[in-house]
Design goal:
Elements (H helix, E strand, L loop, with lengths): L10 H6 L3 E8 L5 E8 L4 E8 L6 E3 L23 E2 L15 E3 L2 E7 L5 E11 L8 E12 H5 L4 E4 L7 H7 L7 E5 L5 E5 L25 E2 L1 E6 L2 E2 L13 E3 L6 E3 L1 H17 L3 E4 L8 E4 L15 E5 L4 E4 L5 E5 L2 E4 L1 E3 L5 E3 L8 E2 L1
Parallel strand pairs: 3-10, 4-9, 16-25, 17-24
Antiparallel strand pairs: 1-2, 1-12, 2-3, 5-8, 6-7, 7-8, 8-9, 11-12, 11-26, 13-16, 14-15, 14-20, 18-19, 19-23, 20-21, 22-23
């Protein structure tokens, strides 16, 4: 467990605050992302949204969208919701963070573009969010999409649940409204699914906790941590710590499926894992998808439980000496029967993204 945020609160205030659990669905290989279901509007409708700690706005496609893809559910119709409030340009809730909101037809308008060149834009509205476990609904601000491109257009999930490190993010709105304490927990299960916990909830007794602090104000909106190095099979890799400070630094990003390392770190780690696996008798093989230059090996069992015989243990070494264990489950993915590929990729000098594959089967708080 890697706590991202830790805050003390009085026992009386804790008693007054709510907490709730949202079921998480999805998988690294079969789906390519993890998502949950939100209940929005009155009467309530449900929408599937990718849980993304790298985004700060929650949005779903709305009726009349000029360029939105075909997703799981019908587009949201704010005119059919008796509790919807379309935000004007001067409304105090018209706040998008960075980049800032604009004014479109006298309504508050947001726009977001991502590194993989997908984008979302639309109007901000306020409406009811059905809090989990039959608790009273809460008014929330979210995006009513008028346009999508790239992966956002093509994905099956309806939208994005922005859980980034910003006051506009979904969980931050709940905190500002006094609904939950300033904490959330996320678990991506193996082989699939998981749970999202909103608010302060006790962890099981005997949990092994690995703690590393967030770096404040390093890069806006991100959950940044300090990384000192990587080990493979108990050996520290010969890496300059400064490489992990490049670009946007080291970011915990639930919306990214795989983990992306600076080129030098990726090359050294890939070689260390490959040398170990091939010494155990596995054969290097091209990946199943020719459009990607996946690094794969064949000859291992289909089940992750037996992979320790063929692939080495690894660790991320964070600031203050914290070590996050990376068994093969957290750096490989099953490409096809008996064939595993490295779930880490070369990110040039852009920075380090710790994606969903590396936090499977643990609770991140």
């Amino acid at each position: 467990m890697v706590p991202l945020r830790q805050r003390e609160v009085s026992s009386r205030r804790r008693h007054l605050l709510r907490s709730g659990a949202l079921a998480v669905q999805g998988a690294v290989r079969e789906v390519g992302y993890f998502y949950t279901t939100l209940s929005l509007g009155t009467p309530a409708r449900t929408f599937s949204v990718i849980i993304d700690t790298g985004s700060t706005i929650t949005y779903i496609p709305c009726k009349g969208c000029a360029h939105c893809g075909k997703h799981t559910d019908e587009w949201f119709d704010p005119d059919a919701s008796t509790t919807a409030n379309k935000l004007g340009c001067s409304d105090p809730l018209c706040n998008c963070g960075s980049p800032s909101c604009s004014c479109n037809n006298n309504r508050c308008y947001y726009s977001r573009t991502y590194a993989e060149r997908s984008s979302s834009e639309g109007w901000l509205i306020e409406d009811a969010f059905g809090f989990p476990d039959d608790q009273p609904p809460v008014r929330m601000v979210f995006g009513c999409e008028n346009g999508e491109t790239g992966e956002i257009y093509r994905q099956m999930a309806d939208g994005i649940m922005g859980m980034g490190n910003n006051h506009n993010a979904f969980q931050s709105q709940l905190v500002q409204r006094g609904v939950i304490e300033d904490v959330f927990s996320l678990c991506f299960g193996y082989p699939k699914d998981g749970i999202l916990l909103l608010g302060d909830m006790p962890m099981p007794e005997g949990s092994q906790t690995v703690y590393t602090p967030l770096l404040n104000n390093l890069h806006m909106h991100y959950y940044n941590v300090k990384m000192d190095g990587i080990t493979v099979n108990g050996q520290q890799l010969p890496l300059d710590q400064a490489m992990f400070d490049r670009g946007y630094g080291v970011v915990l990003d639930s919306g990214t499926t795989f983990t992306y390392l600076p080129s030098d770190a990726f090359n050294v780690m890939a070689k260390a894992v490959g040398d170990y696996a091939e010494a155990k008798g596995l054969k290097r093989t091209p990946g199943a998808d020719p459009q990607y230059n996946d690094i794969c090996w064949k000859g291992a069992p289909d089940e992750f439980q037996g992979l320790e015989q063929f692939f080495p243990p690894a660790e991320f070494v964070f600031g203050e000496g914290a070590r996050l264990q990376l068994p093969p489950l957290r750096y490989l993915f099953l490409s096809k029967p008996s064939e595993y590929c490295l779930g880490f990729f070369d990110n040039g000098n852009s920075g380090t993204l710790i994606g969903g594959v590396s936090v499977r089967d643990m609770v991140v708080t």
